[in-house]
Write a structure and sequence with these properties.
Length: about 220
Amino acid sequence: MVYLKLYPEPKYNIKEILRYMGCRKADDSISGLVNECITELSDKLTYKVCYTEFSIHPTEDGVDLSFMQTNSRGLKMNLFGCEKIVLFAATVGLEIDRLIARYGVISPVKSVAFQAIGAERIESLCDMFNDEVRSRAAAENLYTRPRFSAGYGDFELSAQREIFKVLDCQRKIGLTLNDSLIMSPSKSVTAIIGISDKPRENCAEHCSGCSKTDCEFRGE
């Protein structure tokens, strides 16, 4: 069964928005622009997630995810010690795409700001869902792995076709995938969260073979 959940608006992370804009320091004009864009977005975004769970099994070359098999070594390492996953898709809706396109013509700097805000919004939504999955797992003395998306490292982007099919993304949250594997709305994410009865520390010895160099759990 695929579940649908609607979330309240996450708190805006201005520091992250500025980072996505490439601003190390924001003067009054940039801060004012970001706040103006946030005000314009008020009540225009939706925060939707659809998700389901699958049992998984390692294979010689990769992972059997139940709904598909992949030879991704990176995903296999990420899911080391896991027996099941949460597969999810998240989106904040089309309105942000409309604003990016509109201001791309009349105010490119504002379009850049909306791009950054959109990136921060979808990441905040994914973090909110991630935290919820982590809390549910913890209540059962289980642990989660960092989310991992198709197209990351050697996890084939073409996996999106199977992900969209099993999650029924278009019907559940209005998320579509074109022939070039581009999602619409653009500020959307699909990802896998591994669930294990062992904490991540137990697989630190495998980090040297993982391409996820920015992972917070990576061993020294």
